[in-house]
Write a structure and sequence with these properties.
The protein has 110 residues and is mostly helical. α3 runs antiparallel to α4 and α4 crosses α5. It starts with 14 loop residues before the first helix and ends with a helix.
Length: 110
């Protein structure tokens, strides 16, 4: 049995400091909808790069639909801001939506 050293520093302690922030750190809220971690338009590239299999999409749809509704209200009236279809496509990036489908979703979420 290996000797236990109660005050020993675990070898992986310093690894956490050099790793990228976890996806949970890449969050945002209105009215600007930019990522708190990297400052890019949210959902940011780090969040979009995460795998989105069928199981994950099923968990994302309800939450991101709610968020998309808020984003449409916050972003659509801003000068130079995106239109509701672009907002739907941005916030529901993990769904293969056509422009017509995105328009229909935007109308439902207004």
């Amino acid at each position: 049995m290996p000797e236990e050293r109660p005050n020993a520093i675990p070898p992986n302690r310093w690894l956490a400091r050099s790793r990228p922030a976890p996806l949970s750190a890449h969050r945002a809220c209105g009215p600007a909808w930019t990522c708190d971690q990297c400052g890019q338009d949210w959902p940011c590239p780090a969040l979009r790069a995460a795998p989105t299999d069928a199981g994950r999409r099923a968990t994302l749809i309800p939450e991101f639909s709610r968020i998309t509704r808020r984003a449409i209200r916050d972003l659509r009236g801003r000068p130079g801001g995106p239109d509701p279809v672009a907002i739907v496509r941005r916030f529901l990036w993990f769904l293969p939506l056509t422009d017509e489908e995105a328009r229909a979703v935007a109308l439902r979420l207004r």
